[in-house]
Specification:
This protein has 257 residues and is α+β, with helices and mostly antiparallel strands. Helices cover 27% and strands 16% of the residues. The chain has eight helices and nine strands. The protein has helices at 52-63, 130-138, 158-162, 181-185, 192-202, 210-217, 231-235, 242-255, and strands at residues 5-6, 9-10, 20-28, 38-46, 82-85, 88-91, 110-114, 121-123, 126-127. A five-stranded mixed beta sheet has the order 4-3-7-5-6, covered by helices on one side. It has a two-stranded antiparallel ribbon with strand order 1-2. A two-stranded antiparallel sheet has the order 8-9. A hairpin with a 2-residue loop joins strand 8 and strand 9 (126-127). Helix 5 (192-202) packs across helix 8 (242-255). It is elongated.
Length: 257
Amino acid sequence: MTVTVENNVASVPPVPPEATMVTLKIYRFNPENPDAQGFESFRVPALPSDRLLSLLLYVKGYLDGTLTFRRSCAHGICGSDAMRINGVNRLACKLLMKDLLPKDLSKEITITIEPIKGLPVEKDLVVDMEPFFDAFRAVKPFLITSGNEPSREYIQSQADRARFDDTTKCILCACCTTSCPVFWTEGSYYGPAAIVNAHRFIFDSRDEGTIERLDILNDADGVWRCRTTFNCTDACPRGIQVTQAIQEVKRALMFSR
């Protein structure tokens, strides 16, 4: 198929007869014109098998080439395309339209899309992730050992590995952290993702940095800020029991001294 491109967008292809027209209500912000921020609506064809990311790519490719958002692998692994979809943090590449379209396809549907909360918006759906990664780095998310460099792999039992298996699944998408009301209001709070990644090493039998990490998470910006709202667990696209992990770190702090 040959397409022509004008004004940063290609000519619109024919709409498939089985497609449903939906309205995407997308938050727009341009740092060069901050007073013009607000929502802009686009009519887009959608198939039940489409991902929401596919609809955003349609807007960018055919309707408005200036629309800005992050995406990379498009398969729920890299975590790049986290955004608020109808008020809930989700990965656009994992959300299928069959889960959003009404049973009666003749009904009008509007999907509201916003940037994740609690981080500075750079443009449209793109936020500055540096505060999030600063917190991640602060908890020392790497194996800490002493002595000579090992000459072979560290041996670990299946039971020891299972102890922290759930928290190894984090893809650093920030869905959990930016769904947290405490993080929205207390920007210095490390947030669920940082605590999850600390948990992954705190309970690793091969690691020797547990006390150091617990000290980090015991300060005013650490685990005690958590109010157990379960927003983080609900938002996690990987199904990690985030709230449970935070509670386990709290118990480690209480009983390790």
